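New to this. Look over this protein:
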Amino acid sequence: MLGVRAPKRTSPFTEIDAIYRHILSQAEDWDGVMDVVAGRHMLLSTPNGTFIDLISPERDEKSDLCTILALLGYSRNDIESCVADLTALFRIDRVAFDLQLYHKSLLDFLFDPTRAGTFYIDKNEMACKFAVAHFKQMSDFASIFFGFMVLYHVTQPDTAVTTALQSFLPKTTGERRSNGTLLDHIASQFIAEFERLYSKSNAELSASIRTRWITWFRESAVHIP
């Protein structure tokens, strides 16, 4: 009816989002916070049956967060420093060295651009960033594993990811004997991942990358089915 204003609609998240934005605004190193949160998310959200189940059972799970962030230049002290201003939201478990969130809804906020605004964390963008850093510095079994794992989280590869896949190969690790079967499984999943990313959009590029990496795997005595 004329002269009647519809009731103002408000999001059920308005109050909690305002609290999150206020607390997050206290962070001195927001880029660092994004890296730590994204690294933790990739570690915990890789589905069962993929890379996360294939890594050597002898690995120290306590070092996973450190390992995935190390190739971006973070030490343990750096990781703790990044979230030191946000103790209302995060804590570092010093025994497991894991980032713990006090509120599970925080990730829903951070991964939703309509809610987070300037604090939005783009999961694909972060996965691309991690993938490039890891592919540039692959050397031992752990770095190979984590490099392939972060690629799993890339949904739309950017130019830097494509260039990294075309330009870098791991150094010979000398770990084939102890991790051979694991490398066989990881190689198969890795090939499936870049075919997922490129085969439909650019079959020629997909074939080129596939040939390059299969050659490296075979030269490293990795069995490709």
The mean pLDDT is 83.
